[in-house]
Design brief:
The protein is of the alpha+beta class and 228 residues long. Helix content is 56%, strand content 15%. It has a four-stranded antiparallel beta sheet. The protein is elongated and about 75 Å long.
Length: 228
Amino acid sequence: MIEDFLRGDAAIAPTNFAAMLLGLLLAFLGGHAIAWVYMFTHSGLSYSKSFVNSLVLMPTIVALVMMVLSNSLVTAFGLMAVFAIVRFRNILRDTLDTTYVLSVIVIGMACGTMKFATAVMGCLAVCAAMTYLWFTAFGTRHRYDIIINLHWSRSLGELGDLRNLLDRHSRKAFCASQRSHEGYEGTDLSYRLLMRDPERLDDLLTELRAMQGVSRVTGLKAEDESEV
């Protein structure tokens, strides 16, 4: 029965399934390596977990595309036409959504070019990779617990007092934003904190509001922050 399944590709050129599986696995591992480097080296506030997942999945899907094309110029133009239609009709704001759309297009092309076994094995491989990324929450980074926004009316040379207070409550404090301009009194500050005890957020906010020169204090938990 397995031999009948492996002969399910009715295309002109026979499919080497051992090489196919090896290619998909290498593509997945290569994407994984790139995603790890991106996670460790990314800086700034525009981090997106779905983009990291796309870095893992996209090489696998592209490898499957090349296997389906099999040096066929007609099939290649067909892929471009189908994806152009989807792109024209739908604006995909999430890179992972684009990955899902590309996956179903390639699987449909495999079925349309009579590569039935390739379609089944490719579908299983992509589904397994997507389930793995979802189950392990791959791409999630826990670099801070709390976002603190406040207005500092004292001179910037006295920020050491504020820093000492933040250090008492946090293992790590990072100033993500510092805004001031001519004609504006004081400075707006935004800190990312990795708390020593996340349950003591109220105590931190109370001490900040009682500090001289501090006003408009707000706190936001990291899980409430949307990816940008």
